[in-house]
Amino acid sequence: MADRYRHLKKVIECIDRREYYEQNFSDSDVETAKRELSAICQAVPAISSDMQRDLIKFLDLVGSRKIQEISKYKQQYDYLSRYNAVITEYEKHTKPNLSASDVHGSHKATPTRPNDEYDGSSKSVPLKTSESNEMTIKNMEISELKTRLSKVAGEKLRDNNPSIADLSDMNRPTKLAEHFKELYDNEWTSAYEALQSKSGMKSEEEIIKKLGKMLKMAYTFCRNQGRTHRNKIQETLVHPAGIHVTLNANVEPNVEKLLRPRVRQIQRETGVYAIPAIQEIFRNQHEDEIKKNEWNDSKEIMTYLENCVRICWLFAIQDPPMELLWPKEQSKVDDHLTEFTKRGNVISFVVWPSLYLHANGPLMCKGVVQPV
């Protein structure tokens, strides 16, 4: 069981022994420890987001090798208690019959020491002379440069490469695929019932196609807005005073190519905060159709529509964007599709589109169709 958080345990114990340097644990150990912590917290709902955030912050600080800041953090936060609490909850979750006292006894890190300021007493890092102080500073600078280089390399590796996932990202593609399925299981069902009772539609196919039209509207809108948003980010980086006051407003192709990874990163990391504005823009642009169909008179329909916009926006800001695919009617039912209420080999109409990691990419969520 401990193998699942081996790197996390190693880093925590090294810090408890004041072993801060490369020979004790590497930058990759810290990054793996963060991934292990994220996986544990995702597996155990009882672990609070505040506790996870505090430990991630501490591990980031550990990765920087800034001794004074680490010592200060150790004074302010009892990181060992947080670590032990996380491991306890994880063990309780994976081994329900194991008592809390057994968990504490088996998985405690080294005994807690007073969180005093770092005074150079550690045998591994003696700070008694000016020469050793100078070496310590140089080692810290080298370590910091390695950390920065590692981050840059990681960003380049993830750029336009969806197969490399950031496990700390709660809106990564695998999570979005889960939310997309939940949208179909929950809000789609409620909107179906509301549309059926409100409009008096009796045809199952007519109701389903109406709901599919709403999703397709949201998907097309968000793809366009995603491109517009990226262009605006790029323009802001190149023309901070605004295009209207710049004589040469064109972005050179080589500059655009250079900025593209950074622009996509900014959009991916901050795009979630734009969701309310994107939903409002969608409502304004489709106001006539929403009123014409009286969708705004139904809470269930508007909730479904707003959630369609939300998930499609998160699809659009991935790098590269995730893709929805509506198969053609009268085409064959393949392995990427499931049947709705009938069995058959030929598609009569589409109930729910298939979700892919990117254009021509691997399947993330099967679509639903009604065969003939």
What does this structure look like?
With 372 residues, this protein is mostly helical. It has three domains: 2-151; 173-319, no CATH class; 322-372. The chain has 14 helices and six strands. The chain has helices spanning 6-16, 27-43, 49-64, 67-76, 79-94, 100-107, 130-158, 173-185, 187-199, 204-238, 253-270, 275-285, 287-292, 299-316, and strands spanning 323-325, 337-339, 347-352, 354-356, 363-365, 367-371. The chain is globular. It starts with 5 loop residues before the first helix and ends with a strand.
In short:
The chain has 372 residues and is mainly alpha-helical. It has helices spanning 6-16, 27-43, 49-64, 67-76, 79-94, 100-107, 130-158, 173-185, 187-199, 204-238, 253-270, 275-285, 287-292, 299-316; strands at residues 323-325, 337-339, 347-352, 354-356, 363-365, 367-371.
Fold blueprint:
Blueprint (H helix, E strand, L loop, with lengths): L5 H11 L10 H17 L5 H16 L2 H10 L2 H16 L5 H8 L22 H29 L14 H13 L1 H13 L4 H35 L14 H18 L4 H11 L1 H6 L6 H18 L6 E3 L11 E3 L7 E6 L1 E3 L6 E3 L1 E5 L1
Parallel strand pairs: 2-6
Antiparallel strand pairs: 1-4, 3-6, 4-5
Helix pairs in contact: 1-2, 2-3, 3-5, 5-6, 8-14, 9-14, 10-11, 10-14, 12-14
